[in-house]
Amino acid sequence: MIKKTETVETGSLPLELHDLTVAYHSKPVIYGIDVEVPAGKLVGIVGPNGAGKSTLLKAVMGVLKPTAGWVKIFGEDAKNNLRRIGYVPQRESVDWDFPVTVMDVVLMGRYGKLKWFGWPSKADRELARECLEKVAMLPYADRQIANLSGGQQQRVFLARALAQEADLYLMDEPFAGVDAATERAIITLLHEMRDAGKTILVVHHDLPTAENYFDMLLLLNMRLIGFGPTKEMFTQENLQKTYGGRLTILSEIAEAMGREG
Amino acid sequence: MTRTMKRNGWKPILRMRTLSWALLMLVVFCVVVPSAHAARPAEFVENDAWDQLMRFLSLRDQGVRLVLGGSLLLGLGCGVLGSFMVVRKLALAGDVLAHGVLPGVVLGFLWNLTKDPLHLFIGAVVSGMLSMAVVTILKRTTKLKQDAILGIVLSGFFAIGTCLLTMVFGLEAGDKAGLDHFMFGQAAALDHLDIRAMSWVTGVSLLIVALLYPKFLLLSFDEGFASSLGLPVRMLHQLMMLLLTFSVVVALQAVGVVLVSAMLVTPAASAYLLTKRFHIMLAWAAGFGMLSGSVGALLSFLGSGLPTGPLMVLTASVIFTIVFCFSPQQGIVIKHFRHVNRRRRVVLENLLKAVYHAAERQEFGENGMTLLDLAKVKRQTLETIQHDVDGLVRRGLATLSHDGDVLYLTTAGMSRAAQLVRNHRLWELYLTNAADYAADHVHEDAERIEHILGEATVRDLERRLDFPSVDPHGSPIPALSAKS
């Protein structure tokens, strides 16, 4: 089901950020991020609230326009290669009373591949069913999404991302508010995807589990604190730098720029 | 279970589909078929309501057909576009748009002082989109919240429109007839050109919605995900707003500026209460919109001269009230009856249990129990007990002796009673064993649970507790088919 990603192609990196800076209302949120993510890695993005984790993901997809720097996805400009990105937004970002079924939501993962006036085909439906099966939600395919638990909602979002058949996955807090069984199921799935050559970036909140879950960590607090193998990154000093209060001068300047702009 | 749900779910949908087709055919008939008899409904002079009704229903006159066709068209457009607004929480934006088009309509008239549909249409669309643009700009550049912004723009544009309209009435020149209808709506004022314009606009809008349905659905449900796919989210939003403006303009003459937003929101809101799928909601909303439109037009026609807008909106509100009360899942009347039924069942089942307990105390030697004893045990009056016992007898769970004094449970009654007692004791045992409740804490909980435990859960409980025979208080747990 999870198609293998060809990683050998011209050695291009799944994700390359160069001097990436993003500002909301001319107030910078992330500063000059330089990262080169190698293929087939499960990467945890950790940092305190307001560190710019979601912003980083949105900038990668081009949903937020960077004020400086650039993003390359598999060696190409991000906006030309969006098809290779799969995205799991935060669960709270949608209205779960919306009148759609689980199946309808998963099919939306196929919409990026549709023509301008296209509707999802039978093959798309079949694929969506397989993705639902992968997250053990197939029996709920015809349910309205309002009748799902938090963990089930998260599985539906994962199935939708799987249906995108992407090579680089960006997930915004997939472990937030899910039960222990779902958390285990998700991490198993993520490992399986990684073993198939996918590259996965996961915004994560819980430090203790971060150490075990991820191959690499990206420590973020407005600027890049560090990026590397989990064992090397998970040091007292690094965590202190990431969580030990904001870098005062940096955030003061950001405030000032916000007022000016 | 899913199968029966599906069966029950499909029937109304099929019926609705037929109804929708019938209404669509009616639209085509009204709009297309020409007639030599071209009196305008406003010119009819008969006062006999019955004659008027027949005249309307028989669709003899082209005037009537135009009115009905226009009403159906506007209901269709408003229902479909309004549904998107309701699920996107943009219902009030529709209201802003409705008031925002008024200045444009009047300016369109001033262009060459005629009621040319094309000029009015262009004016309305431009000014409607302008009002939306102002909303967007205010939202981006200030920290004002949505409700305040909408309030400002709505009333501002409406004020401009009203001033312009009053000025136009002061003018000497021009054919102003019908321009006043833009306030409260008069379907009878629609002429052939209006209807042709309405059909085109509605047709094109619906075609675009059908072609772009997946895009619009995704935009409405999860805008962040839509933009992550690289969809032109902002453009799609603008397009949807343009289509919304179209449907507002189509409805304007018949419904009027003041109430047109109700035709967007009310049918869609009724549909929202009825279904779990968006495309079905669209169909219901379109159906409700067309129904409200045509019934409103009919009422106005019969009542000679009442503005159509309020009557259409009134019809839509009546439909909403009916749905609110009687919708199968959420209707409050239905919910109330379900609640009453459940309470009644619990009362009767508790009575069954009381008889079972009495029989159990006598080791099932004697089969009956007098109503007087039952009243004593339940601490209730004989009248109440009599009433409840009648319920049991009607349901075939018990019989009464000839003099009506002694109650006997039938086999069905006995086995239901045994089930309840078993549920109760199993649940108590489960709570004390598995959930570590103290034995004296579990009775109250079991009193509620016993009525709702299903067969599957009971078997599961039995298995987990290793087929127990005695509850925490030492009473025996009856097997599934207990017999005295």
Folded structure, characterized:
The complex is a heterodimer of chains A (261) and B (484). By secondary structure, chain A is an alpha/beta fold. Chain A has one domain (15-260): P-loop containing nucleotide triphosphate hydrolases (Rossmann fold, 3-Layer(aba) Sandwich), CATH 3.40.50. Helix content of chain A is 34%, strand content 23%. In chain A, strands 6-7-8-3-9-10 form a six-stranded mixed beta sheet, sandwiched between helices. Chain A has a four-stranded antiparallel beta sheet with strand order 2-1-4-5. In chain A, strand 1 (15-24) and strand 2 form a beta hairpin. In chain A, helix 3 (122-134) crosses helix 4. The longest helix of chain A is centred in the C-terminal third of the chain and has 16 residues, at 180-195. In chain B, helix 3 runs parallel beside helix 9 and helix 5 (102-112) runs antiparallel to helix 6 (117-141). The longest helix of chain B has 31 residues, at 2-32. Chain B is 73% helix and 2% strand. Chain B has 484 residues and is mostly helical. A three-stranded antiparallel beta sheet of chain B has the order 1-3-2. Chain B has helices spanning 2-32, 49-58, 62-87, 91-100, 102-112, 117-141, 146-170, 181-184, 192-211, 213-221, 223-228, 233-255, 260-274, 278-302, 308-326, 332-361, 371-378, 382-394, 411-434, 443-449, 455-464, and strands at 368-370, 398-400, 406-409. Chain B folds into three domains: 1-35; 38-330, ABC transporter involved in vitamin B12 uptake, BtuC, CATH 1.10.3470.10; 334-409, Arc Repressor Mutant, subunit A. The radius of gyration of chain B is 32 Å and the shape is elongated. Chain B has 21 helices and three strands. The chains are: A alpha/beta (261), B mainly alpha (484). The A-B interface holds A 58, 61-63, 79, 82-83, 85, 87, 89, 93-95, 98-101, 104-105, 108, 111-112, 114, 116-120, 142, 144, 146, 160, 170 and B 2, 87, 89, 211-215, 217-218, 220-222, 224-231, 272, 275-278, 280-281.
